[in-house]
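User: Earlier you gave me the apo prediction for this protein. Now I'd like the version with nicotinamide-adenine-dinucleotide bound, so I can compare the two side by side. Same sequence as before, with the ligand SMILES added.
Assistant: Got it. Here's the input I'm using:
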Amino acid sequence: MLNIAVVGVGFIGEEHVEAIRRTNLGRVEALVGRDLEKTKSKASILGIEKVYDDIRYVLEDEQIQVIHICTPNMLHYSMVKRALEAGKHVVCEKPLTLTSEEAKELVHLAEEKHLVNAIHFNIRYYPLIRHAKEMIERGDIGKLYSITGAYLQDWLVKDTDYSWRLESEKSGETRAVGDIGTHWMDLVEYITGLKITDVNADIGTFLTKRKKPKMGVETWSGKILKNDDYEIVDIDTEDYASVLLHFDGGQKGVFTVNQMACGHKNQVTFEINGSAGSILWNSEKPNELVVGRRDTGNEIIIRDPSLVYPGARSIITLPGGHNEGFADTSKQLFREVYQYILDGDYSKEKTFPVFADGYRESLLCEAIMKSQKKGQWEEIQS
Ligand SMILES: NC(=O)c1ccc[n+]([C@@H]2O[C@H](COP(=O)([O-])OP(=O)(O)OC[C@H]3O[C@@H](n4cnc5c(N)ncnc54)[C@H](O)[C@@H]3O)[C@@H](O)[C@H]2O)c1
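And here is the structure of the complex with nicotinamide-adenine-dinucleotide:
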């Protein structure tokens, strides 16, 4: 069993705690929050004894072997850097950092320190994603032609919807692309084994002004506010983006991200079209993979250990029909990371997403923003 500390215990931090426990390979030893009293009350519900309001305490704790960083984006770089310098293995939330320079530095630092590093691109861990990857590797859908899809949400439709994600100094230069577009791009590169080489973006902010609650978001959450409780603020990050793509095998593609698409709570879709078939997946029905055929009927593959390729079988816990979902993706990702640490052979190939994948996403985001500014195709730097 590994001893783990989770830093940042908001929405995803709590999910990490639960998923870590379900791996049966990690014990949550400590929580670090911004507000000590609130973190203590969460820790008492979760049955965790060590509670701190500063990461330095878990860096100094020799019992802690792995640190999960689940704080807002602007804190990732400094926290990951300190954790690596203290000799801890790190699992970081996406995006890894706010800039590609910072991400590159962390990739090198982790290598130099021989520490295991992972980034929480959890969508890769829906079992049918692994199955789709193996289908493509085996040539089941032939030569690939096009890759299209979307990541849509509706939590920012109203001008009173507010979060730190809307503030570029906390979230980064891009919001919709950085927050959800990176999941989509990581996913399709992972499945196809292809790399995006060039991008051409059309980006928009539908609400350039929003009503920010005068009190902290955690304080007002769930309360009904009056007009006087808000201040009007300018918004400098995008609600929407459509990005044309070129891939290194000559394939073409496009994806759309939109955080103001009513009715889509949190939906990732993609379609990969090849000479012998198509693959379609929708994260809101994650236990089904549609295979489109030209000359026979289409097929729906169900997430069932007996129906999928071996690669996917290793990340399925339950039999078919017993649905697995979002929470299981983190469990499977952490299991692979922890097993790798416990095996102790760091020259072994990694099956999980690493800091280098976070660095790649930051290069893609920067190219997308440059393309938008220049109004032309932009090549991805490496
Ligand atoms: N992979 C995914 O599916 C996924 C989903 C949600 C969020 N995320 C990522 O996770 C991160 C957190 O997002 P969230 O939705 O949980 O946000 P959140 O606002 O719900 O939680 C962030 C928490 O960090 C705490 N915090 C702030 N400063 C801190 C500090 N100095 N030390 C310790 N704790 C501190 C806040 O008090 C809050 O509890 C973001 O980077 C986001 O992109 C990833």
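For your comparison, keep in mind: Residues 7-13, 32-34, 70-73, 75, 93-94, 120, 122, 179 surround nicotinamide-adenine-dinucleotide (CB under 6 Å).
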